[in-house]
Design a protein that fits this description.
Length: 711
């Protein structure tokens, strides 16, 4: 056969073999050896397989592939991946990351807790729980269970020796009850259970009679009769019929005191049968209200009683247990060495009904199921020393403790564990707590208040130095090497132009009181310039002066001689402007005011146009009087003068000078009740131009005393 060398053949658009892609070129070696398939760009197929994924066979991509429109898996479209904190909608076209799945489970667990009961920890429900398949439990107990023969509630439990024990208030057996052994107990102040009641009242009934009505008597002791001559009867108590229960007045040796009181709740309980088979038997129990008492009897209500109470009978032992209103008879103590919870000691308080539920305030007992003792206190409790250096206290719903050392089950103290073992690392938040150090990895760390408003920001400045931003920083001790302000450097020793020195802020004040604009010392403040300033402090008197002290000092030596206004220009040491009050005062002092002169510049005007007038000595002491007609005027009395100065009564050394002058055009005004120089009460008439000076004083008695009268 003749050999043919193939140099180059172009594959048609529809290739005859699937091994050759459309548009590829087959190139021969020229020597009849190998051929190479290349595309039009000259890249071989092996290279293409490294760059593109195969859709016919398994393949692997070394880089990240971004599917912008989604991806299909087994013909199912997946459009998105929900990460832990993504807010996208959960649909069939989305898948979750591992952290998102964990988060959904945790969130769902919180919802499930409200629907399902936990089996790995204590839980409860307020709804009826039907266990149709039965229940297996070492004990079953009602929420208000109180152990002991005088207790309350229900309990079924298995003791540590395997015996099953049930506690009930009443047990009804419809057909037959079989007892291998029946142990009988009675409720009284003795036996395996000791009860100490509030009154010590106890008695054995010797006779019982029912009383449905008693004769009616008037207040004078006479009996009431109807018109037909028959006697009038009434109920023996407010609650209707009663049982009168008699007991021995003495035991043959001494008299027995009747300690029962009206309002007491009395109880009797016994089970008086012997071993054998009986029908229609039950224990004998009743708990009733005492409505009346006598020397050797008590009356108990027929209707006011515990539900299911039996009728009292001869031989019943009755004891006082509670009172409907008197708190002194509402307590009891039960000490028991027999039965569930024994040994036990229970304190009851507030027994004002026929139930002990919720009345136990202190309980000490033994749990035979858990094989441990218990101590319950409902209210306030304190365990510790009297000095309260080591104690545990419960009061007002708060548990407070102080311990020299608090040990854990590991044998280490809480302090040791806190120092060596407690650490917290939250990677996603950047918070790490370890070795008493808190590290926060974040560009900015915000501290917010309860409303979520930021109150401080921890960040860095443009140079990478850590800073804290806040409205203000309140510290007891601030030590800095350098302070940077928004507009420049705050050098050491000054802040904004204020000098800082030992015990001083601002410029230094001289011994005579001079200095700069502001000086703040520990015991003095100076503000002002050189020629006028104010000093306030412990003692602002110059050192050159002696013999007196002052807490405030005002200096005004300002040159002020400009006279262009037509009057003398004045300097004031203190300028006071007061307004807005019912009465306004410029200065008040409990000591005399000393000055070279006191100048008053305002005169009050007293206008009398009728039978009444208005005057206030606290606002003026010089008055012009004008009267439209002649009037006799009685000046204010002591209480009215005291009211002017805001006092309920005048002090014993009160004194005030008053000046009255009658204006032109006024009618005569006569001032009555004025003491003259001889102490006689006189009336003085003021005509136009007349004046009178009076001293208002309370020595030796209150009155208006004449100083001068000019007519």
């Amino acid at each position: 056969m003749k050999q043919v060398d193939i140099k180059s053949i172009v594959i048609p658009n529809k290739p005859r073999s699937g091994n050759y892609p459309v548009g590829s070129t087959v190139v021969g070696s020229g020597s009849g050896g190998n051929t190479t398939i290349v595309n039009q760009g000259g890249v071989d197929l092996a290279t293409l397989r490294q760059q593109f994924l195969s859709k016919k066979s398994d393949d692997t991509a070394s880089g990240v592939i971004n599917f912008l429109k989604g991806i299909k898996i087994a013909s199912e479209l997946i459009k998105s991946v929900l990460k832990e904190n993504s807010e996208g909608e959960i649909t069939d076209e989305a898948i979750m990351s591992a952290l998102r799945v964990i988060k959904e489970i945790e969130d769902n667990n919180e919802k499930l807790k409200k629907i399902f009961l936990r089996k790995d920890q204590e839980d409860q429900t307020n709804y009826l729980l039907k266990l149709l398949g039965g229940i297996i439990s070492p004990f079953l107990e009602s929420p208000n269970f109180v152990t002991g023969m005088m207790g309350a509630g229900m309990r079924i439990a298995q003791e540590e020796n395997g015996d099953s024990v049930g506690w009930f208030d009443r047990l009804y057996v419809r057909k037959k009850a079989e007892f291998q052994m029946l142990s009988i107990m009675e409720t009284e102040l003795a036996g395996a259970s000791f009860m100490f009641n509030a009154s010590g009242a106890r008695a054995t009934i010797t006779k019982v009679e029912r009383i449905d009505a008693v004769p009616f008597y008037y207040a004078d002791g006479s009996a009431k009769y109807y018109s037909d001559g028959s006697r009038a009867y009434v109920q023996p108590s407010a609650h209707g019929a009663v049982y009168r229960c008699y007991f021995l007045a003495n035991d043959g040796e001494k008299a027995i005191e009747n300690r029962f009181r009206v309002g007491n709740l009395v109880r009797s309980q016994s089970f008086n049968i012997k071993s054998g088979v009986y029908e229609n038997v039950s224990n004998h129990y009743w708990w009733r209200l005492v409505t009346a008492v006598g020397d050797n009897w008590i009356e108990v209500s027929v209707n006011h009683c515990d539900e299911g109470s039996d009728i009292p009978k001869e031989g019943d032992v009755v004891v006082q247990l509670g009172d409907i209103s008197d708190t002194d008879f509402q307590s009891a103590i039960v000490l028991s060495a027999y039965g569930d919870g024994a040994p036990s000691l229970i304190f009851y308080q507030g027994i004002n009904s026929y139930s002990l539920s919720g009345k136990d305030i202190v309980t000490i007992g033994y749990d035979r199921v858990k094989k441990e003792g218990y101590f319950n206190v409902y209210g306030r409790a304190y365990i510790g020393n009297r000095e309260q250096t080591n104690y545990l206290s419960l009061s007002d719903g708060k548990l407070v403790g102080r311990f020299s050392e608090l040990m854990l089950s590991s044998g280490k103290s809480v302090v040791e564990v806190a120092k060596d073992e407690i650490s917290l690392e939250l990677e996603d938040t950047g918070i790490n707590v370890k070795d008493r150090t808190v590290t926060v990895h974040a560009d900015n760390f915000f501290v917010t208040n309860t409303s979520g408003e930021p109150i401080a920001v921890f960040t860095t400045d443009k140079n990478g130095r850590p800073i804290v931003k806040a409205e203000y920083i309140d510290v007891d001790n601030l030590k800095v090497k350098h302070l940077d302000g928004a507009e420049g450097s705050l050098e050491r020793g000054s802040i904004g132009g204020f000098e800082l020195a030992n015990g001083r802020i601002g410029s230094e004040a001289t011994a005579s009181g001079g200095g700069g604009s502001l000086s703040i010392y520990s015991d003095m403040i100076r503000v002002g310039g050189t020629s006028s300033y104010v000093l306030i402090g412990k003692n602002v008197v110059p050192a050159t002066a002696s013999g007196f002290t002052a807490a405030g000092r005002i200096i005004n030596n300002q040159t002020n001689t400009y006279g262009g206004y037509g009057f003398d220009v004045a300097n004031y040491g203190l300028f006071i402007e007061v307004s807005g009050g019912t009465k306004n005062y410029g200065l008040k002092s409990n000591a005399p005011l000393m000055a070279t002169a006191f100048i008053g510049t305002k005169i009050g005007r007293l206008n009398i146009t009728g039978s009444t007038y208005k005057i206030d000595f606290s606002q003026n002491n010089i008055f012009f009087i004008y009267a439209s007609s002649a009037y006799n005027v009685t000046l204010p009395d002591e209480s009215q003068v005291a009211s002017m100065f805001g006092m309920s009564s005048l002090p014993s050394d009160f004194g005030l000078m008053l000046v009255f002058r009658c204006l032109a055009g006024s009618k005569n005004v006569t001032l009555a009740g004025i003491y003259d120089q001889n102490g006689s009460v006189q009336s003085y008439t003021l005509a136009v131009g007349d004046s009178i000076i009076l001293l208002v004083a309370k020595v030796p008695y209150f009155g208006y005393f004449l100083i001068n009268y000019t007519s």
